[in-house]
Amino acid sequence: MSFLRVNALSVAYGKAYALRGVSLHVEEGESVAIIGPNGAGKTTLLRAISGLVRPADGDIWFDNVRLDRLPPHEIVRLGIAHAPEHRRLAPQMTVLENLELGAYHRRDRKAIRQDMEHIFELFPRLRERLGQHAGTLSGGEQQMLTIARALMARPRLLLLDEPSLGLAPLVKKSIFDALARIQQDGVTVLLAEQDASLALPAVSRAYVLESGRMVMEGPSQMLRQNDYVRQTYLGL
Questions:
Q1: pLDDT tens digits, residue range 117-132?
Q2: The whole model's pTM is what?
Q3: Which residues of 192-215 are buried (b: 16+ CB within 10 A; e: fewer)?
Q4: DSSP string covering 175-221, please?
């Protein structure tokens, strides 16, 4: 069985289905993207994996453990961390307190300090803002903190939801440069992203999600050369 496998997943909000029969797999150490327009169901899919919404049908497995019956805190303990869309930081808490919140379930204090130092290597600006309230950070700094908070859980699988949303081009580049280093550290990454021009070069494989259904999948290089993807998502 794959490291992460989603089988024929359907999720409904009331009578409206956000996902219908969606399947995907991610292997350990792999980086995979889900691209698609706003409202395609990308966020719902990541929220289902992290236990924040319950599927109407289908199942989700991570390292041979079934996830769709578990509460979110148990899923975190299994090694899945979620950096959500719109960041969801604690705005009245400092940068340091938000980072410590990411490690709430850990007791290895020495390793936590080491991981925090690694975070500051990835995102040097966060060290400069340690005592600042998260709500006063710039959008780019908040996105850095969102990813850093997730990494403080020491995840085996990192779920990233729209990390480039609303950011300036230079900030987007710095976020994706950090993402490349996270992958080099051996963290498996599942990325949901509207901006296919950023997402596809950053991953090995990708899925195209439209109107709650998977319509295409394959190696990222193949999708970058696909006429439909080029016209619809790359503007070429």
A1: 999 999 999 999 999 9
A2: 0.94
A3: bbbbbebbbebbebbbbbeebebe
A4: HHHHHHHHHHTT-EEEEEES-HHHHHHH-SEEEEEETTEEEEEEEHH
